[in-house]
Design a protein that fits this description.
By secondary structure, this protein is of the alpha/beta class. The chain has 17 helices and 9 strands.
Length: about 425
């Protein structure tokens, strides 16, 4: 029996953080690089693009979806991922998380743009700030549009003609004068693109704060970098920063009953999927998982995924479940279950015999778990009632040093509550 039951993020305004004198970026500004405040003073004061004027769903392009999702992350603390439009039209119901919905072909591009901007946000803001009179006064919609345009120009080295596309998008989301402002700023950014500012290597200055320099170059909060420097030293801290900024790799858990198991599915996928998709057997859980380096969206579009024969799940989370070693007939409590990958893996290891009570703070997220459980043939559903950095790039900007003690207290509270519900000599396990 599987029983799901249910037990804001704060956003900070853009505040450019100080940088060491040797950091890459514009220093002494020429006349061509001076702030463009005289163009549109009311736009730089944040009056042009208001959240209430931004469309809330069904954007027409990947770029529009990315801008709107960045705005939602800034103002509402929502998640990075963007849903496919088919998700909202199924059974005529709206998406459970109120996610933006785009066509399937735009979903991959939009989600990648959002994650990329968030992973580069501090450095992008540093490079944009000389061209803005009052960056902190910009409405989030306009600031995020500029971040996205700068990201495509500087990181992806897109041609300068994309500036016109962002100008049109600014007009669409606001009015014609916003288009002129965006054009002026992004034309300045193309000068940085021509100078290959983004590609310049890190040059440390011994006279400047190391945490500020690393935090700016690798786009992490200085307080976080400082903690890591104290705990791990400079070399390992840089390794952590680089790891957080790499494209994440994903695991694919293969459901029981799939002919040939993971190896059989791998052979089938290698025949069916495009050549650019890179998938292999899992190094750590070869009997249960595949490892995906590139092409996750292509795999998600496969009929095996829609049929519930494979699910996206990190191998590290899978190792937690294997360490728990759930057995048929046991009763298991998953106190922080959504989106449910560990819960469903445990259920498969229990061979459908036993009981899992799945809790989460958000009832809406448990609906996703409930839907996935049905695909795997789990029964006895009860409707829910209210009650990590590389893949969540937004979290680095939504956490402050004071949050750490609160999070530790929350972890201890959850463990204490869970401990009161397990019998003597039972296993109490916390995922790192």
């Amino acid at each position: 029996m599987f029983i799901p039951a249910s037990l804001s993020h704060t956003s900070a305004a853009f505040k450019p953080q100080p940088a060491g004198p040797s950091l890459q970026g514009p220093r002494r500004l020429s006349s061509a690089q001076r702030p463009v405040k005289e163009l549109l003073p009311q736009i730089t004061s944040g009056e042009a693009v208001q959240t209430s004027k931004l469309p809330r769903k069904n954007p027409k392009s990947a770029r529009e979806a990315a801008v709107l999702q960045l705005e939602r992350i800034s103002s509402q603390g929502t998640y990075i991922h963007i849903g496919k439009r088919a998700d909202v039209t199924e059974a005529g119901k709206p998406p459970v998380n109120g996610r933006l919905e785009v066509d399937a072909r735009a979903q991959k591009s939009a989600t990648g743009l959002v994650a990329g901007v968030l992973k580069s946000q501090r450095r992008l803001d540093h490079l944009l700030s000389p061209f803005l009179a009052k960056p902190e006064g910009l409405a989030p919609g306009l600031l995020n549009l500029l971040r996205l345009g700068a990201y495509e120009l500087l990181v992806f080295n897109k041609p300068g003609r994309i500036v016109n596309e962002y100008v049109q998008l600014a007009k669409q989301l606001s009015h014609s004068r916003a288009g002129g402002f965006v054009n002026a700023v992004l034309r300045k950014v193309t000068q940085l693109q021509e100078a290959q500012v983004w590609q310049q290597p890190l040059q440390l200055d011994a006279a400047a704060s190391l945490s500020d320099q690393l935090g700016l170059y690798y786009s992490h909060p200085s307080w976080m970098v400082q903690r890591w420097l104290q705990q791990f030293g400079q070399v390992e801290t840089i390794d952590l920063l680089c790891a957080n900024n790499r494209l994440p790799e994903y695991g694919i858990r293969v459901s029981p009953g799939v002919e040939g198991g993971p190896q059989g599915l791998l052979e089938d996928l290698q025949v069916r999927l495009p050549a650019e998709v890179e998938v292999s057997a899992s190094e750590y859980l070869p009997d249960y998982f595949l490892h995906t380096v590139r092409g996750l969206q292509d795999m998600i579009s496969m009929p095996q995924f829609k049929a519930g024969q494979m699910q996206v799940m990190s191998e590290s989370a899978g190792m937690v479940v294997r360490l728990l070693d759930p057995q048929p007939g046991e009763r298991i409590l998953d106190a922080c279950a959504a989106p449910g990958s560990k819960t469903l893996f445990a259920a498969s290891l229990m061979q459908g015999k036993g009981q899992i009570v799945a809790l989460d703070s958000k009832a809406a997220r448990l609906k996703l778990l409930e839907s996935a459980a049905r695909k795997q043939g789990l029964s006895s559903m009860i409707h829910p009632v209210a009650c990590t950095l590389a893949k969540r790039a937004d979290l680095r900007w939504q956490r402050l040093p004071d949050d750490l003690s609160d999070l530790c207290t929350l972890q201890a509270t959850l463990l204490d509550a869970a401990a009161a519900l397990v019998r003597m000599r039972a296993v109490l396990q916390r995922e790192q």
